[in-house]
Amino acid sequence: MVDIMKLKWLETDKVSDVCLLKIEENKLPFLKLGNSNDIIIGEWSIALGNPFGLFDVNDQPTVTVGVISAKNMNLEPVDERFYLNMIQTDAAINGGNSGGPLVNSVGDVIGMNTIIYSTGSGKGSIGLGFAIPINKVKKIVDELKLKGEIDRNFYTGLGVQDIDEKIAAYFKLQNARGVIVNSDENSLPKKPV
Q1: Which of 2, 9, 51, 122 has the most CB atoms within 10 Å of its CB?
Q2: 116: how many CB neighbours lie within 10 A of its CB?
Q3: For residue 52, what pLDDT band results from cuts at 50, 70 and 90?
Q4: Over the range 158-190, which residues count as b (16 or more CB within 10 Å of their CB) and which as e?
Q5: What pLDDT band is residue 192 in, cutting at 50, 70 and 90?
Q6: Do 66 and 91 contact (CB within 8 A), yes or no?
Q7: Which domains, and CATH codes, for the chain?
């Protein structure tokens, strides 16, 4: 068990729900990070974690087993966090499993347990758990190490506008997510008029 005093929170990316921690300790056991691009629907998945704070009772993480039910699942945003291209598993993921590894049958980490669909009480698993693919986690962590943040600003030369409910209704879109191009730099006046 790691002494909490040796755990240092370095950076966080709220949008993806991933943070970078540093443990100031040597020779700790670790799991190999796999390749989430290689997962297939129907393969075994194992979720490790600390549901409902049971680690305090037993001093060990818990393990649940299931299969990969789906890949590339896009969920609705929750508290300004966007869960896109998620791994769906029926391995029970409960409150307290978030941040724990989802591993394949050989113990390689293929995802980070993150969110569940639950019953009305909002606490228990109904067989719909989701993990952030480990390749995405690795990419985010690398950028947090390098830049201290995830840079989502980019210049395209296009004039864009967020899609709100009115725009979604006008264009008969299924949801109000994303942006719409309303001009490009070629259509803008070159000099003020």
Answers
A1: 51
A2: 22
A3: low
A4: eeeeebeeebbeeeeeeeeeeeeeeeeeeeeee
A5: very low
A6: yes
A7: 4-147 (2.40.10.10), 154-193 (no CATH)
